[in-house]
Amino acid sequence: MGATAGCAGALLALLDLSSPLRGPLVLFFLLAAPGFALAPWLRGLDVRGRAVACASGAVVVNLFVAQAMLALHVWSVRGGVAAVGGVGALVFLSALARRRRHRTPSGGTP
After folding, report:
1. Would residue 56 count as lying in a domain?
2. Residues 6 or more apart whose Cβ sits within 8 Å of residue 104
3. Residue 55 and residue 36: Cα distance in Å, rounded?
4. For each of the chain's 110 residues, which pLDDT tens digit applies?
5. Which UniProt keywords apply (predicted)?
6. Is the distance from CB of 6 to CB of 33 less than 8 angstroms?
7. Does some domain include residue 34?
8. What's the domain range around 72?
9. 3-state secondary structure of 16
10. Is the pTM above the cut of 0.85?
């Protein structure tokens, strides 16, 4: 349900469609995408600590993207949504690659 809402918000922003749900869904995407992407990196924390760290990390990613786009004079809503989605995808894929690299064969020893 949350992934669908986030994807809908990103699509509404990227396609520049007007809807009364555009604002809340884009906000949800901007907070949820980086937060969920950071979750695999924080497996050692308890649930509450992981939630706080993921929320804080999502805010940091959003602020970093906004600051970089403003410094380079390329700010746009569509570009910001795409950049946050891209950073989130890179963080998530790096966690999957790390997990795959550290996995040992089922019959061997580490």
Report:
1. yes
2. 110
3. 9
4. 777 788 888 888 888 888 888 888 988 999 999 999 999 888 888 999 999 999 999 999 999 999 999 999 999 989 999 999 999 999 999 988 887 777 666 655 55
5. Membrane, Transmembrane, Transmembrane helix
6. yes
7. yes
8. 29-102
9. coil
10. no
